[in-house]
Write a structure and sequence with these properties.
Elements lengths: L15 H22 L2 H12 L3 H29 L1 H21 L3 H30 L4 H8 L1 H21 L1 H4 L1 H17 L16 H7 L14 H5 L2 H21 L2 H7 L4 H29 L1 H20 L3 H18 L1 H11 L4 H30 L3 H18 L9 H22 L1
Helix pairs in contact: 1-5, 1-6, 1-7, 1-9, 2-7, 3-4, 3-5, 3-18, 4-5, 4-9, 5-17, 5-18, 6-14, 6-17, 7-14, 12-17, 12-18, 12-19, 13-14, 14-15, 14-16, 15-16, 15-19, 17-18
Amino acid sequence: MSKTKSGNSLIGGFGRHGWGIIIYCAAMFWFYVGMVNDGSNITAPAFAAKNGIEYSLVLSMGTIAGIVGFLFFIIFGQINIRLGAKKTSAICMFLAGIFYIGLGLSTTITMYAICLCVITGSVMSGGYISGGVLVAKWFPKRKGVVMGYTTMGHNLASAFYVPMIAFFVNSWGLQKGVLIPSILVIILGIIGLLMVKDTPQERNMYPDNVTKEVYEAEYFVEQGEDQNGGWTTKKLLTERETWLTAVTTGVYQLVTVGVMTQLVVRNMQLGFTQPQAIALMTFLAAIGVVGSWIFGILDDKYGTKKTMICFGLWYMAALFFNVLELKFTIYISVFMIGMAIGGSANFTTSLPTAVFGRHGFEKVNSVIFPIQGIVTSINFLLSGISIALTGSLRGAYVVFIGILALNIVIISFVNEHKFNKDFNKETDKEKVVDKSLSAELDV
């Protein structure tokens, strides 16, 4: 089995507490995708039908929630810096649960939109802002495969949350149907508050679960460095790598959220019944679990930048097979889309961590993630326009293919480890060794 430089295997060696962090982050992703993205395949039509409101109008509230969520991301980013990832994530889970109950009780589009805004802003902040910091702090050099595990929560939500919420809503109605997931996400917040630690050092461990000797030899050990790693908001906003990192990762999420939020509807347009479409989503999500892991392994082995370029090409092919709308190409696209949705969210934390490193990541992520969120939220607008103008999501898929092609070009300009102090220390060490070997050969 291949080994990392720290001596840990690619698929293990995280330690009991490390696995606890991974599972906690995966659970937050499970609720994010269930409540905001995939679950909307059930809750949005149910709300529209219950209150006699046009479905396209209800769907467009997702765009508003994404834009308003931008403000939540900024606020929670600052709270995360002051309170730490553990407390901030707990607050986010509490808010998500309370307002999900409110969504079920909503009788007007305004009340629905307000609840959706709070749910989107809080549960996404918990998963990506707080969860991203936890991954960067606990697993700075193994973030690729770790994000492969945590983002399995996305796919497991598609596999289990959608049929679960469909059963509850169809059996009990929207108002009572949202109660169980609301209670569960609040319980998750309590677990995080009681059991999660912000850094491995609080558990008498070192990042990536390495030994003290490896940590001191291969990692940059901060000495008197300020909490923000020398970064300010202004400095980050004027740095080219901030925008390249945020936009490229945001585009992959834009496409994935755009595909997944309307996948049941899209499959029904292709001739499947709702139960068949939901079953197909479950199958697709199961494939996505494998995709998360595979793209995480590729990330650790070949680097985030190369993996993202290959990922984009794969995604373009997947959507191309879908828009052909031939029976056999649809089934090919299901497999390929499943692999893609499994990997897309990996990069939201993996690329920023690769470029900026763990030092001051709370500050870095507080700036990058809101930009990612704004880019991602555009998907709702694209889907809504497509439905209104063409009556089909096929046009949106064609647009997504073009966006992915442009994104690949932009990714090629990213300087993958520009500010990563751990990586630069390791590189400097290798240069010293190379010079020593050269000197010995000369002698």
